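Quick one:
INPUT:
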């Protein structure tokens, strides 16, 4: 079944595995449920407008940025900035009981 982050769900035994690359190829959103690894890699020269779109896509697919106290972005050896994400907990609808 097609998914906005790639073809999925994948056949990975531990859950969904996939990534989305921005049109310019400089920003990658990666999702690996089995290893609980969710992050965005932004290579030098990326456009802030594309980053905004990727962050919105991540949010629409149930991911939030880690809080400042949970983890800082990381700079990799090739000057890529890695920003870690966390899945949003599933929301259960509130039920109203009438007596």
């Amino acid at each position: 079944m097609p998914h906005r982050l790639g073809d999925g769900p994948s056949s990975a035994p531990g859950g969904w595995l996939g990534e989305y690359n921005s049109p310019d190829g400089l920003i990658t959103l990666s999702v690996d449920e089995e290893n609980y690894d969710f992050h965005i890699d932004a290579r030098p020269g990326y456009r802030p407008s594309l980053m905004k779109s990727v962050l919105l896509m991540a949010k629409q697919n149930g991911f939030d940025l880690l809080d400042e106290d949970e983890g800082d972005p990381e700079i990799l050896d090739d000057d890529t900035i890695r920003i870690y994400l966390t899945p949003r907990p599933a929301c259960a609808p509130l039920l109203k009981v009438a007596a």
